[in-house]
Each structure stands twice: as C-alpha cells, then as structure tokens.
Specification:
Elements lengths: L4 E2 L18 E5 L5 H10 L5 E5 L11 H19 L3 E4 L2 H14 L4 E4 L3 H7 L4 E6 L1 H4 L2 H10 L4 E6 L1 H11 L6 H12 L9 E4 L8 H8 L4 E3 L2 H11 L12 E4 L7 H9 L4 E4 L1
Parallel strand pairs: 2-3, 2-4, 3-10, 4-5, 6-7, 6-8, 8-9, 10-11
Antiparallel strand pairs: 1-5
The structure holds D-glutamic acid.
C-alpha cells in the first residue's frame, strides 16, 4: 500500500522541545472514515495522544458544495485547535483536503497533514495502464485531482467514479450492520462499464471511508485488481513531522462527534477498539 500526502508547509518549525508531551494529534473527518488513518497512526506512533473528530452533523461531505465543505472544515478546525491545542492536525478526509487544505493552512498555525488521492503510487503499480478512482462526488470533480492525473498519470487512463453509497456502506459496517451489496456492485460496475474498464487492474480508494469496505470491493472486482490508499503514507508523514517530540498521555484518547443526541453504543464499542475510550459531542 502506498500513498500521497500533503505535508505541513516548511515554515512550521516549532522545536521538538517546545511541544507539550500531552498535546494530542487531532484527526479530522466527516465520519468514521478517518479511523482507517488512525489505525496506521497507532502503528507508527503508539504512544501519541489522539483526539478523533468526526463532523457527523455535516456527513456526507461528498454531496456538499465546495463552499459548504470549506466553511465547515475551517470553522470546526479553528474552534478545535483553539480548544485542544493539538501539536498537529491531520485532515483524514480526501474531500475536505482537496477542497479546503490551502485555506485552513492560511488561518491555522499548527502543522497540517492532508490526504490526497493516491494516483502517483497507482500509476507506478498498474500494468495495464487503466486505473480506477473511487471517491466522493465532490472529490472526483476537484481540480486537484485533474492536476494529480496530469502530473502522474498522463500516459494512463483514469476512470473516476463518485460513490456516495460506499460512504453509507462503510458507516453501516462500522456500526456492525450489514453492508448493502447493491452499493458495492454499483461502484464496481460504474468503473468496469467505462471505456477501458475491463482492463482496470488498480483502484485508488480516494475516500478514507472506503478501506473499511475494501474486502467487499475486492470480491466484486476480482483478484486481478489491487487497491491503493493513503493511510500508511499519512502516518509516515505525521511521524516525520513529529520526530523527536515526547509523548505523555494524561487523559484517555477521545472521539468528538458534532451534532446532538446520544452517540449510538455500536459506535462506542468500535471506537474503543481504536483506543478512543471517551466519546463526546462537540
Ligand atoms: N471520508 C471522506 C473522504 O475521505 C468523505 C465522506 C463524506 O463525508 O462524504 O473523502
């Protein structure tokens, strides 16, 4: 599994000794997709205190306009960084990153790692030259994706599909509910039915929710297709940017969900498996 990440600007140069050891890494997504990134962050930095923030009141981002996504992400991250003073923010969401990363970096002083579709590693992996890209509807239309395609896959064929049904499927799976087979079949068919689709051998999971349903997609697309996403690369980038920093967890790691009402128990159980022992509304 390889990846592309967008790193902090080189100007963010706080010395490692100045970082409070209990300062968390803040991971942000619209829902539970960012847990696929958290899993790799845990592997790379097991002692790092973490706050996982899900903008569940704004889910799904994929069907929103660019202005709506940018406003939510900038507003929430502004309030969260002020309240929790993280040492680093990871926007563990392709939709939010491809739309709002530049804007958020302009207003926040904390190092920020974003997530971009892993087109570069996919272009290196494909043998047939046909790559599928599954993202949200908002991600697949971003100019950022056009630029990645031009830069890294100009000599390949990139088949894009915005698959909101997969976001729902991933959220359901995490709650322990069955995955809708029609959502999986629809996404697989939407790629395969495009010109050149029968030759597709590599699929970019360009939404952090989608690795949660990778097994189902693999079954639908067959053994000749390999998947690539950004989680491991993001974790490596976070480890690099926090090199030399001390970690001391003083309070249990927690998950923040925007919106009102009780967070369902099914979520709590799963979040605990990711080491998020407390769940709060934000
Ligand atoms: N997990 C998000 C991403 O990586 C998007 C899910 C959504 O809110 O539509 O793009």
């Amino acid at each position: 599994m390889a990846s592309d990440t967008m790193s902090a600007p080189s100007g963010a140069t706080t010395s490692a000794a100045d970082i409070d050891p209990s300062a968390p890494i803040l991971l942000f997504d619209s829902g539970v997709g960012g847990l696929t990134v958290l899993e790799e962050v845990r592997r790379a930095l097991p002692d790092a205190p973490v706050i996982y923030a899900a903008d569940t009141a704004g889910l799904p981002y994929g069907s929103k306009t660019e202005a709506q996504v940018a406003a939510r992400v900038a507003g929430l991250l502004g309030r969260m960084t002020e309240r929790f003073r993280p040492r680093l923010v990871c926007i563990a969401c392709n939709t939010a990153s491809t739309i709002a990363l530049g804007m958020v970096r302009e207003v926040l002083e904390v190092p920020i790692v974003g997530t971009v579709p892993a087109i570069k590693p996919a272009a290196a992996m494909t043998r047939t030259g046909v790559i599928g890209l599954l993202g949200t509807e908002a991600t697949v239309r971003q100019v950022y994706v056009d630029r990645l395609e031009q830069e890294f896959a100009a000599d390949k064929r990139l088949l894009r599909h915005g698959a909101p049904g997969l976001v729902e499927a991933a959220e359901a799976k995490l709650r322990g509910e069955p995955v809708d087979p029609a959502a999986i079949r629809h996404a697989a068919d939407a790629l395969r039915s495009q010109p050149g689709g029968e030759l597709m051998d590599t699929v970019v999971l360009a939404c952090t929710h989608f690795p949660l349903v990778e097994a189902e997609l693999a079954e639908a697309l067959g053994p000749q297709v390999r998947f690539v996403h950004g989680a491991q690369g993001i974790a490596r980038q976070i480890a690099r940017l926090t090199t030399g920093q001390e970690y001391a967890r003083k309070v249990p790691d927690r998950a923040l969900f925007t919106g009102a009402g009780d967070v369902p128990d099914a979520y709590r159980t799963k979040l605990a498996q990711y080491g998020l022992l407390e769940v709060e509304r934000f």
